[in-house]
Specification:
- The protein is mostly beta strands and about 290 residues long.
- It has a single domain, classed as Nucleic acid-binding proteins (OB fold (Dihydrolipoamide Acetyltransferase, E2P)).
- The chain is built from two helices and 17 strands.
- The strands form five sheets. The protein has a seven-stranded antiparallel beta sheet, with no helix packed on it.
- Strand 13 and strand 14 form a beta hairpin.
- The radius of gyration is 22 Å and the shape is globular.
- It starts with a strand and ends in a 12-residue tail after the last strand.
- The model has no long low-confidence stretch (mean pLDDT about 90).
């Protein structure tokens, strides 16, 4: 559930939060220490110290949880011990205990709770939480944490409330409808988890004030039209000027993703895309 506070201040008026107590277990307040490590914030800078990803910096200190996206514990049943919050991702995570005694963090599907069991197996039933090759998954099934190449680890559909849909099997490939509305193929030997990523209400949360964004490591973003011509293709001019280009551009002069095709025509995986994504409101963008 998304909780809204009484408007005791301007920041409280529009802000909302998720009631984590209704979803997370309280038996373990701290993460499993053996599966955590420190992670320094880059502040958007590369190894040379130059900013390559703008408008990042500061933010609260966070401990990184090592999530198992490889799922290399095959044919060994596992039981969920806790459902936990992860500051590095929008979905919830689950601490699971395998029958051989190993503990791992996984990305939790919706409605997974403490005590649930699942298995990673080529012969597993296509039920929520189980992981199996996409070739063994019935048509119309929702999946998440999908591999892009065999044994490459989960790459597709990992954000909160997200899923891909299996819509066809043909000639060694499985066709998926992506969360972005794109339809693409993956090899049928890739693996996927049945279900949808947890915390589907994440998209309904309103930060309410700039301070919450700063705690997340997000700095204020300057509009291109407010900059000088030397700093941005949209900059310059007297007063409030039009951008001077037919299509919107990034600081580097490349097209932006606001209804324009930005994918390279030479990208090696273009042959696997059956239908390009539909930009705008259809994929959750602003009208």
């Amino acid at each position: 559930m998304v909780k809204k506070y009484k408007p005791t201040s301007p920041g409280r008026r529009d802000g909302s939060v998720i009631e984590y107590k209704k979803y997370l277990t309280t038996t373990q307040s701290k993460p499993h220490k053996a599966l955590t490590k420190g992670k320094r914030s880059t502040g958007g800078r590369n190894s040379a110290g130059r900013i390559t990803n703008w408008y990042r910096g500061a933010g609260n200190k966070r401990k990184y949880r090592e999530i198992d996206f490889k799922f290399d514990k095959k044919d060994i049943p596992a039981k969920v011990e806790t459902i936990e919050y992860d500051p590095y991702r929008s979905g919830f995570i689950a601490l699971v205990l395998y029958k051989d005694g190993a503990r791992r963090y996984i990305l939790a599907p919706q409605e997974m709770k403490e005590g649930d069991e699942f298995v990673v197996s080529a012969t597993a039933k296509p039920t929520k939480g189980n992981r199996l090759p996409v070739s063994a998954i019935p048509l119309g099934t929702f999946v998440y944490a999908v591999e892009m190449r065999p044994e490459g680890g989960a790459r597709i559909a990992r954000a909160a409330g997200i899923h891909a849909e299996v819509i066809a099997h043909d000639a060694g490939y499985t066709t998926l409808k992506m969360p972005s509305t794109e339809i693409r193929k993956v090899l049928s030997t890739c693996w996927a988890t049945i279900g949808e990523v947890s915390n589907e209400e994440h998209r309904l949360v309103s930060l309410g004030k700039a301070g919450r964004a700063r705690h997340m490591g997000l700095r204020p973003k300057t509009r291109g039209t407010a900059k000088n011509a030397v700093d941005h293709p949209h900059g310059g001019g007297e007063g409030k000027s039009p951008r001077g280009h037919k299509r919107s551009r990034t600081k580097q002069g490349r097209p932006t993703g606001k209804g324009q095709k930005t994918r390279s025509p030479k990208k090696h995986s273009n042959k696997l895309i059956v239908s390009r994504r539909k930009p705008g409101p259809l994929m959750g963008g602003k009208r």
